[in-house]
From TrEMBL:
Keywords: ATP-binding, Kinase, Magnesium, Metal-binding, Nucleotide-binding, Pyruvate, Transferase. Pathway: Carbohydrate biosynthesis; gluconeogenesis. It comes from the Bacteria. The keyword Cell membrane does not apply. This is Phosphoenolpyruvate synthase. InterPro entries: ATP_grasp_subdomain_1, PEP_synth, PPDK_AMP/ATP-bd. It catalyses: pyruvate + ATP + H2O = phosphoenolpyruvate + AMP + phosphate + 2 H(+). Its cofactor is Mg(2+). Its EC number is 2.7.9.2. GO terms for molecular function: ATP binding; metal ion binding; pyruvate, water dikinase activity.
Amino acid sequence: MENFQIASTGLASLDEVIRHLRMGDNVVFQVRDIDVYKRFVMAFIEKNKETAKKIIYIRFTQHAPLLMAMNGVEVFPVNADHGFEEFCSQIHEKITSEGRDVLYIFDCLSELLDRWATDTMIGNFFKVTCPYLYELNTIAYFATFKNHNSYHSTAVIRDTTQVLFDVFEIDSITYVHPLKVWNRYSPTLFFPHVMLNHHFIPVTSSGDVAALYSRLGEDDENPERNLDYWDRLFLKAGELLSSSDPASARVKERISQLSRIFLTRDNRILELIYKHFSLQDILSIKSRLIGSGFIGGKTVGMLLARKILTQSSELWPRLLEPHDSFYIGSDVYYSFLVDNNLWKLKMEHRRTAENYFEKASCLREKILQGSFNDTIKTKLLRMLEYFGQSPIIVRSSSLLEDGFGNAFPGKYESIFCINQGTLEERYHHFTEAVRKVFASTLSVEALAYREKHGLTQIEEQMALLVQRVSGSNKQDYFFPDLAGVGFSFNTYVWDAQMNPNAGMMRLVLGLGTRAVDRLEGDYARIAALDRPQSMPYDGLRSFKAYSQQKMDVLNIRHNRQECLSIQNLMDQGIDLHQTKLAERDLETEQKIRQLGLDRKESWVFSFNPLFSDSDFASTFSNLLQTLETAYSHPVDIEFTVNFKSNGTYLINLLQCRPLQVRGFKDHRELPQEILPDRILFKSQGHFMGGNISTSIHKVILVEPHAYNQLSQSEKYEIARIIGRLNKQIHKETTTVLLLGPGRWGSKIPSLGVPAAFAEINRCSILGEIGYHQTGFLPDVSFGTHFFQDMIESEIFYLALFPEKEETVYQLDLLDNFAQLLDIVPEKSKLSESLKVYDLVPGQLNLKLISDITRQEIQCFFC
């Protein structure tokens, strides 16, 4: 027979009824009035406060406190307004620190509905908290309001707790009906018990029990209790919409309430929602929601931008392709963790700073192996039935993404589902994609980003945006005609005649992945929207060298994403609208004929015809300025463009967020006269970061020609050495200029130094040097995730083209005016490629000045 450590309820007769409380019990009281629960709490405390056991009151609701501070009782306040994770974390940490054999009193759980608006999360809280309390041999008292929670959450509580009482009063007489008493039994245990003269007497007569509940007048068959409190809120909102003036105070109040529980907590975004969204808009969003909780920053940004545009002009309803999206609420992410027994591991990761990345790796692997409960699975299957075999994309939409704070550029996954095969096969691939997005919250890149920005303890719920991929079938492939990113403010102007306020874009053929990533060995088209024909590389070589050669597509025959040659697709007879987007390459066609090859036409996708023969640039400039005006802040967008049979086009606006810019500093005057032999470099345009004037303390230089002679392994070694140097930089006190050939961050050593962003993020100024003869050419990264990382790390960017006539390039002056450090003395070949210079205090100062107005940058000794 098992030995249990028993405890008292404080009511001797009730102890006899249930064969005493046992350490480890979670005890739930279903009550109609909080004062009834309070009486049981006080009896429990009065009996146990003189024992050696500690008593802690977990206080989190608005109702009057169950008890005041008293000897032997600690009150531990928790703010439920900060969300499920923070709430659970604080309580979990308290339970952990207190250890075993503690007695707990919790406020009424039903009142959490006012904060979280969903029964699901109350059930999740109970599922993750009570087993932990049981494990630590505690006794914990909880209460819920009878018939206030859904059947589902009530069932979760019933299944999890050890003791469940239904307590009610009739004619001032108290009745207690034990509904569950785990591992204990008596012939009368589960009858209602009436309290008379401090004794609990079972009511065993069927007629008496029926009369009792008849007088209580409860309707346990209330159909609304099949619904989560969440759904009931929206049902009532729908009733209000049909019966009230859309501009009434009650409607506005309901818009405010619903916006705060499932759209955003960002007050600046909320102001835009109140201005532009109607109650009908909010209910329409809810109709596409799977689960409950927030829909996340990416989703809100997309919906809000579309609403702003369609309200601003009759033009946009005609030009915008309708979106066809579903939203998976953030509570689904938490429920997934709870259902797969991962919550304890998540809490361990959250509170273990020294093993922050190691714990994350274990949790990430377990997330990839998890499964969804039947309720969510059914809803996901219905969604997939709706989409049919159209390709879809699963996009992260976390609470912290795409607001007026951190952008999280490329830190979380977005995954295409080609969506072919049977429904079960499609469900398998879809849920695999969802798990990957969930797991990406724990990637090294995401965790490092959150750590750097002080967000490790901030609740980061992952919602999902599921979108029908924009585009059409073209033989075995599916892709949009064009995709890109746009910016209402152009911080990378390369021509003094350009107006930064006109905006710019980064444009590609096919899927938009190539617009947001730095392309390995390929180029997106960069266009300033007021001068779209001007290219950043004018004056170097034909634009052909900087045009897009490959494109990303979805292969619907083989169910995979592919990167294919543009020429290969045209050779298959696939129409890429080349007459609208490209220019004939007559020189190449002539060479092909001379070689006797079969190809008929060759095209260079410069996009010049699109800009010269249509209103494309002015339309996007208008779109971006409309959004910037509404946001009172620069914005950036992601979009696709598809051509209709009549030659016109439709825009699919996929994403909109405040542009993460640090703003321009005051105008800096360039010195009028600098001795030519003191100018390290001087360039027109090709920089990002606005006006700066700064002294440089250290220069790290990867010399392009020497680097070009290295083996591939040696080039990787150069990158690792730079990473070690980067760790030694104290950015607050040391301004470092890092210069290297081609593209920083490239994965291909032949295109640039293959250093990850984390290996260069402490430099203050990043320069890319372009030489045709070495094959190293910068990629204007404006608009990519790499660019967003630079902006948020406050790194000034510049590109140098020594072969341009107007460029002054005299890096050998460093040998004259700076101290060369021995970094790799044992490897002379590497030391020729990688040089580190210190500027000696008291000698010549190295200064960098940029003037955004004149589009000029100078670095000189003075």
